[in-house]
Predict the structure.
Amino acid sequence: MPQAKTRAIIALALFASLISFAKFSSCESSGWATPDQYVHACYSDIPALFGERGLSKGDWAYSNGADSVEYPVITGSVMWAFAQITPSGDDSIKNYFHINIFSLALLFILISLIVFKMRPEFSYLYPLAPAGIASLYINWDLWAIISMIGAIYWFDRKKLDLSALALGISISTKFMPIFLLFPIMFIFMRRNQLRGSVRYLVITALTFAAINLPVYLTTPEGWLRFYQLNLLRGSDWGSLWYALTSLGVNLPSLNYLSILLLLIGFAAIAIYILELRNTPSLASLSFIVLATVMCASKVYSPQYALWLIPLAVIALSDKRDLHAFWIWQGAEVIYHIAIWQHLAGVTGAKFGLPLYGYALITLLRIVATIYLIAIFVRRGLAGGTQGPLAHRSLREFLFESGNAYP
């Protein structure tokens, strides 16, 4: 029976990846021309950046200064490595696209199997989630997601060194998983494991340094580009701030406001963690944390659904919560259509979604995400509050911690 279920998950993931391939390959004949790639919702960063970042010429991903790739080191290395094995010629862009999406399909299948191992009763939701299928080949996110899911899997099974190593790799691939250190530190606090938290941080930091330092020392300008762009960028597609601005609500100092909203969200999460009767698992907290980050950030790209879907699936614990999952997926699919139809309109298509409509759908997506967060929080609190470690002070944590690793 377990083997039959495993084969079923593989089949579902393969089927979903093929559906996604059909969606994204529809623009190959036009060479991903604009606005056609938006009209048919088949835009992908993969062919777009192949030429724009010098990869088609064989350039190292971080050697072009301000024109270097705008991603952390492992993602940039993957982009460069696949460019090196891409056959040259008139079809080089298509070849590069096919090589990359083949690797992404394999990663998608592997993540499906990990999710099955972590939450078998709901694992079918991951490959069948429509927003995931729609976004599968937009970017290289799955390279970071698989190591992030591995970090969560090993952390909840007390294989903490492996978890820290995987998290360091994930942060070096896409920076988003760094926010998981927040719930991880609180879980260590609830377990009374100060030395464990320090060891975990050190392993994560050393892994990140070992991967990043060689690139930083040899091509510092290219390495810094990702971090500079994220610090200096204004409100961008999909964000709460972009939607409000589009609706005429002009807010000054967006950088400070987004940080303030994120800090408020983290403070609420900290209170939630401390109010739980039992020490929570990282799997149960990860969706709440990353979804909060995405709702507060200055950009909320359509492919961010790829990060949240596996986290939502492994956080599910009751069939009564499935309605919230599907409401959220419905909002994600509506947004996925809206972003491309809005971009089609502003790039010369005959028809498109006006800015006002796009802004309202952006807010709908954020509300649906917050609703699923609330469902998970309510389910967690239903298990009881004010446990024996719920109100330990930081001073008690620092001076009464026992051995770090079990």
